[in-house]
Amino acid sequence: MLRKACKEACVLGKGILMRMELPKKVKHIISKLEEKGYEAYAVGGCVRDTILGRVPLDWDITTSAKPLEIKGIFPVTLDTGLQHGTVTVMIEKEGYEVTTFRLDGAYSDGRHPDEVSFTSSLVEDLKRRDFTINAMAYSDKTGLVDEFSGMEDLKNKTVRSVGRAEERFTEDALRMLRAIRFAGQLGFSIEAETFEAVKKLSENIARVSAERIAKELEKLILSDGCEKIKLIYEAGIFAVIAPEIDEFFKTKPERVNKAIKAMENAVYHTKKGLHRIRTVLFFEELGENKACELLKSLKSDNDTINTVRHLIPLLGREVECSELEMRRTVNLCGHKAMPLLLEARRAKGLRDVTALYEDIVKKGCCTDISGLKVNGNDLLEAGVPKGVMIGKTLNRLLEMVIENPEFNTREKLLSEVRENEE
User: Fold this and answer.
1) pTM
2) Nearest-5° angle of CA 282, CA 223, CA 335?
3) Interatomic CA distance for residues 141 and 131, integer angstroms
4) DSSP letters along 45-74, please?
5) b/e map of 220-234 (b: 16 or more CB within 10 Å)?
6) Which of 44, 220, 315, 342 is the most exposed place for a label (fewest CB within 10 A)?
7) Where are the beta strands (DSSP E) in 64-133?
8) What are 267-277's pLDDT values in tens digits?
């Protein structure tokens, strides 16, 4: 639903008269530029999100002022992208990117413009952007500048390219994944011609770095519309970046649907945790080894890879009615990852064993070596030879304690060590 505060009043020249609440510091930057005779607007995603009633993650400003002119107006700036016309204006330790209206040159690498040139035309600047919903600008003075019917597409919940979709995706292949990601995050559909262009040019995704692909996948997996991950397969992009996943979709569609349903069901109190849970659920069918190899090729972070490696084998363990099996599972999983495993199980529709786990914790059951009532020094004093035997003995004692929690006393463990030494 479009935000009620952003109501169209009338059209005057190139601006739709609309009142939008801008943050105080953004208004300050825009007004300072206007005072010096330049045009200045909030632009892109922050305008889109404000109209939709979402909280923008950041605020970008576009202006007719050149980079050195911007630097001359504000006392504290950072040269974050002068070659692309971008200056970061610092206000009370907060940074706001201010970019000169620009034209992009040819994209010979299919990702970045070979060169940029500055222009005095806001419309020319907006024309180079990816999607209509991201090609709107706003200032209190002018109102909403919407040359490409972004408002109409917001109302219709549609992701549509600015101009010819094939041109936009040929310029920057990452935009194909961004189209799908926006559809997931916003709950939108992708306009037919735009999606046809994605399918036609899907092989170009090979030009995009694995890190950028992984970032888009992460944002999509975290979105409320994570089921839009199907579009990556339908577009032919998985065939390029992850043939294993493409094969999964082709040969086991029912299991794909179950995995995606589980992803939708999953909830967690942190984004990092939710991303790992949903990644485990989506990649489970591949098995931990293939899943980890694929995640490595996509330059996923080590914590996510390790979580996937540990949790996939544990998802199928039968722990519902056995405290012993729960203690063994906690030993394999670790307390840090147990909440992720429990939520992944719940999302899959398996029995909720949270109470059983919490009972293990409440009882103080030992599930790792650090919880043993003896340590390596105690074993040395008890006569265990220094070296690998210390570790082997601690592991043997841990197995004994997992099976019999009551044995975890200093006296019982040292007695067991001495008997074994004899």
Assistant:
1) 0.88
2) 60
3) 24
4) HHHHHHHHT---S--EEEESS-HHHHHHHS
5) bbbbebbebbbbbbe
6) 315
7) 77-81, 86-91, 94-100, 102-104, 116-118
8) 999 999 999 99
